[in-house]
Amino acid sequence: MSAQDYFCHGSMDGIWKAGDNGVCPAEDEKASLLENNHHLPLGESSDTLLPSAVDTAPLIPFMETKLYKRRWVMLFIFSAYSMSNGFMWLQYGIISNIFTRFYNTDTVAIDWLSMIYFLTYIPLILPVMWVLDKRGMRDVVVVGSALNCIGAWIKTSTANPSMFSMALLGQFVCSVATVYILSIPSKLASLWFGLQEVSTACSIGVLGNQMGIAIGFLIPPILVPNVDDINELAYHIRIMFYISAGVATLIFILVIIVFQEKPELPPTQAQAQARDIPPEQYSYTASILRLLCNKPFMLLVVSYGLNVGCFYAVSTLLNRMIIEHYPGEEVNAGRIGLTIVIAGMVGSLICGIWLDKTKTYKQTTLVVYLLSLIGMLVYAFTLNLGHLWVVFITGGILGFFMTGYLPLGFEYAVELTYPESEGTSSGLLNCSAQIFGIIFTIAQGKIIDAWGTLAGNIFLSVFLLIGTIMTGRKRKTLPLSLQHYLFSFH
């Protein structure tokens, strides 16, 4: 076979590999060849490979691939673990007025029980991403679920007005577990799932955390009523903490027994080739530097951080915003938060399925970002109308697009940075989100105290507008890492 027989050749209807006899394979083989399309780089004006890259990229030999039914078990266990951690993030924030009185402290201190999740993530994400690349996904998930379990049991001792410091310690341990969670969905999806379901799998992985947040909005106001008797209040708080600790323990046991690193056979040709790359050829530091020099990706990092940081601020301060206009409505504040997240989960699933079908990453991301901005403005200007049913509707619209954006950012990052590690790109996205989450939560809290909720929500809307503009910027060229990768196979 001649050298040119190993190269891809472009045509009007696809890409094919010439065989020994020069005959092109069937259409299904073409589709199999493009199995890596989920991770192919994006062109300047569309979400397909640039013709010049297609015409010159050599083919990789086909390898055996297989989809295992237990991939859904892996996804379910991870989602449950992520759900448990997401619930504990909002245990305090959604009933902040109750915990402020219980611990006899101010609202800022209670806000920090949520914001510590953001603060912990920033210095720890790089070392955890290194562990993910060096030790693998199973070790990261095991350590994370163990920390989640330990933090939950620490908090069972904090149902006492004098134990605020211990409550902060428990939240700190749980926040460290979060670092071991947020970069996993895209990694798990690529290791276990096929081309036509990887975006959906990533969305479901993200939904685990969102489900936990939804439960965190709903359950604490029900389990911990706003009663005057401190002893009775301590009893209800203790019940909530023991329930969350029991669930975290069960999930930890499942992770130890059931969770696997990867299937025996890879699900896609892309993963098959990735397994053949010797570990010594991969440099974690070089990967980080390539990502930091990838301008389209860095634009996404900032715009993603702006969007998700706004979501974190709204979630953390939701109780304060609702109680300001609707006093005594702690339970409905939780239900509004639940509505925001449930609507967002529906949005995430729809967006994931849409991406699997269309691969229109840039266009979908821009549309969802713009609608997030519109939803934020509608929510801001209707919050003080005096009708809770209006807040439920506008909150649902906001959540559908703002929370629905979360898996879009992960998947778009993979498209912009392939073949870099999915965990590394996701980690940098989440780091940006935590930084903006701290900034926006503190700033919006002070603005609400000084000028009210409308001013605070307009403040967030301004940054969503900036993020929308950044998302709309067109890419001029392929990232250097992609160019190097496309032309380096032999």
Topology:
Layout: E1 8-10, E2 15-17, H1 27-33, H2 51-56, H3 71-89, H4 96-102, H5 107-135, H6 137-155, H7 164-179, H8 184-192, H9 198-223, H10 230-258, H11 269-275, H12 284-292, H13 295-325, H14 330-358, H15 361-382, H16 388-402, H17 405-417, H18 422-451, H19 453-472, H20 480-486
Antiparallel strand pairs: 1-2
Helix pairs in contact: 3-6, 3-7, 3-8, 3-9, 3-10, 4-5, 5-6, 5-7, 5-18, 6-7, 6-10, 8-9, 9-14, 9-17, 13-14, 13-17, 13-18, 13-19, 14-16, 14-17, 15-16, 15-17, 15-19, 17-18, 18-19
H-E string = EEHHHHHHHHHHHHHHHHHHHH
Q: What is the CATH C level class of the largest domain, in words?
A: Mainly Alpha
The overall pLDDT, averaged over residues, is 78
Q: What's the CATH architecture name of the largest domain?
A: Up-down Bundle
Total count of domains: 2
Which structural class is indicated by helix and strand composition? mainly alpha
Which strand order spans the largest sheet, edge to edge or round the barrel?
Answer: 1-2
For the termini, the CA-CA separation is: 15 Å
CATH homology superfamily of the largest domain: MFS general substrate transporter like domains
Query: How would you describe the shape?
Result: globular
Helix content: over 70%
The poorly predicted ranges are: 1-58, 474-490
